[in-house]
């Protein structure tokens, strides 16, 4: 028997289509790509939870999965929106049933809110492209999610909101100057949720395409002087993605192996699979 994992895509359909039009693969596919490397025998399913016509697994069906992974989303978790509230209730069900959860961006906000924490708009504004100088806390340095990670690193990121109050059972694992809560472990009910505000599942080309998808907002907010400047940055990022040995572009874009090396960038998800999901999965699941 192989691991059975469900990838929960938090984007509504119209917003998923915006990403597709910009040439970016779906948020769920970003995780599929990584999981095919770290858990090649896993059975993967997708749940488009923000689509109100999508039925959700009940308790009995939830028990048939070994773990659940939350993607990003451009919804706002503190608004009274049925596309949001059904997601929070489902995360609470997963906590109650005791199924392991992992998530990035929207995922860390979901981990906090579903367990009783709080999320609000970040007073520093949008954090976009690269989260700089992410620092592990003392708890993070000792935490199994960060085995193989430097104490200070950069990561891919794109968000406007942030966790402002940790829930009971929440432990802060990573932080930086822009956003205090960059990673959490949350133990709530019968479950455990590992989550990051940044995106370990992204690759450089994905972030380049996300910049294209958010072009109007980024120019308006002053990240780029105009569309020509944005296109130049995207072109440099995509060139470096295709040839990571380009020292000139590494210097120009200011990124290193913590961004470009899969073994470093993806270790959070890899550690979740190996240290949380596999030990709790049926004995017949292959250990890798």
Characterise the protein shown here:
With 288 residues, this protein is of the alpha/beta class. 40% of the residues lie in helices and 23% in strands. The chain has 2 domains: 218 residues, Rossmann fold (3-Layer(aba) Sandwich); 50 residues, no CATH class. A 9-stranded mixed beta sheet has the order 2-1-3-4-11-10-9-6-7, with helices on both faces. A two-stranded antiparallel sheet has the order 5-8. Strand 10 and strand 11 form a beta hairpin. The two termini are 14 Å apart.
What's this model, at a glance?
With 288 residues, the chain is α/β, with parallel strands linked by helices.
Please trace the helix and strand order, writing H or E for each element.
EHHEHEHEHEEHEEEEEHHHHHHH
Structural class by SSE content: alpha/beta
The low-pLDDT segments are none
Number of helices: 13
Number of strands: 11
Classify the fold: give the CATH topology of the largest domain: Rossmann fold
Helicity, in percent? Answer: 25-40%
Q: What's the end-to-end separation, in Å?
A: 14 Å
Summed over residues and divided by their number, the pLDDT gives a mean of 95
Number of domains: 2
Q: Per DSSP, what share of the residues sits in E-state strands of 2 or more residues?
A: 15-25%
Rg (C-alpha, Å)? 18 Å
Sheet of most strands: 9 strands, mixed
Silhouette: globular
Strands of the largest sheet, in order across it? 2-1-3-4-11-10-9-6-7
Q: What is the CATH homology-level superfamily of the largest domain?
A: Class I glutamine amidotransferase (GATase) domain
